[in-house]
Amino acid sequence: MRFSRFVRGVFASFAMLVVLFLLGPLAVIVVFAFDKSNVQSLPIRHWTTHWFSVAFHDPAVRSALWLSIKAGLAATIIALVLGTLVAFGIHRFRFFGRDTVSLMLVLPIALPGIVTGLALQSAFNISHIELSIYTIIVGHATFCMVVVFNNVVARLRRTSTSLLEASSDLGARPVQTFRLVTLPMLSTAIIAGTLLAFALSFDEVIVTTFTAGAQNTLPLWIFGAILRGQQLPEVNAVVVGVLLLTAIPVAYAAKIASGDSAEVLGRSTKP
Asked: The domain spanning residue 263 has which CATH number?
């Protein structure tokens, strides 16, 4: 279907408005991160990178950053293993309650974060588990697993079983089939799900608030500094760093997913 030049122009203008609406607030933060003044106002009279140095040498920021990285990596590993295994189980086997299990897996990310966080905190309190980095990891893994599960199960549904059957017919053992056939076919989906899960964990605030206790991740540090109305220029600099740290894995995951979709589309259109 071909559209007229006027319709294409309308669509392009609308797309630009959406992009500005989404990226405009982020651009404001990035601009003020280079403002020398402690008071955020326009126009900016003096530009500086001083606040990035302040944020880098702040022990509280570095400690919170390291905690976020450790919690994010651990939660991502747990989500990767469990999400992949559950995706295989849901896709390959038929059993009673299969649809219920699928619903329960998606529920943590579908529910409001405050509900998930409150439920986790109550469970930890009843079990007499002290809030620490381990409870943060468990809390993050509950919704990170959904991302991995969705990516892997979507790939499995698009993957033909003929290659697996051919591998078995040629005498390959199940472990060999998984290592040489299944895993390469799922590699891009697993990588994309892993990167998205880490980015999601690194940015999480609400669930972390209920599961962190005295621990302070980087998003919690930012949230606390904003509530106190202190260190706002430093907060802007930290936010720019967070944007870069999360944008890189998300962009790479999107590139992998789009490239993989194009490959699948190309295979489906071949005679």
From this structure: 1.10.3720.10
